[in-house]
Design a protein that fits this description.
alpha/beta; seven-stranded mixed β-sheet; Rossmann fold; 9 strands
Amino acid sequence: MSHRRSSFQSNDLFPREIDIEVCLKTLKIYQKIEGDVNCVVWDASLVLAKYLETMCQNKPEFLSSIRVLELGSGLGVVGLTAATLGAQVTLTDLPEALPLLRLNINENKSKISSMGGYAIAESLVWGDSTSQILKEEFDIIVLADCVYYEEALDPLVQTLQCFTNTITKKPTMYLTQEMRDSEVQKRLWTKFFEKLNEIFNVEQIPEEEQHKNYRSPDILLFKITKK
C-alpha cells in the first residue's frame, strides 16, 4: 500500500463538530483545508459512526468496554465515536496519517474518558504480517470508505483475514463504502466485494435500520463475519 504525505500546520486545519446525541457529547474533528484521502471527513464515515450510535441507542451496552479496531481511520470519526460510546478503541492508519489522528484523539480525550471509553492511534500498513497489532484480539472491526486503490485490495483482505483467524475471538466487522460513478471505482469495488464473499459472510444492513438522518442509497453498509 502506497504511503501518502500527510504533514500539516495548525493554520491548515479547521474543526468540524459532530454531535453524538445518545450521550450528549460533541466531537471536535480537525481536518485539512485541502489534502489527500485521509484529511477530510467523508460521508461514509458519518454513516458508520451514526449507525454505531443507533445501535447503542437500541442496546446501551453494545460498545461498553468492547475492544474495537478501526482500519484506515483517517481523521478518526468512526473510532472516536465508538470510544465516546464506551469502547476501548485502537485507531490505525499509515504512519504519516498519525499526527492529525492523534491531534483529534487528544482534542476529544476528556469526552471519551468521561464515558468510560479509551482511544489510541497506531500505525498499521495493510498486508504487513510483522505488525504487533496482529497479535491482539478485537470484538469489532470498523472501516469506512477504504476501497480506493487497487494495490491496497489484497493487503486489506489479508489484514481482515489475520484479525479473524484468531483462536478465541471472531470479531464482527462493519464496513461502509460510498458508491462513486467512476468506472475505475466501480471495478475496484466489484473486485473487493467478490474477494470478501469468498472468505466472509457479508450481510447488507438496510437503510431503515440506520440512523434516520445519516444514510444514503449511495453509501452501502455491511455487517461481515467469518464463515
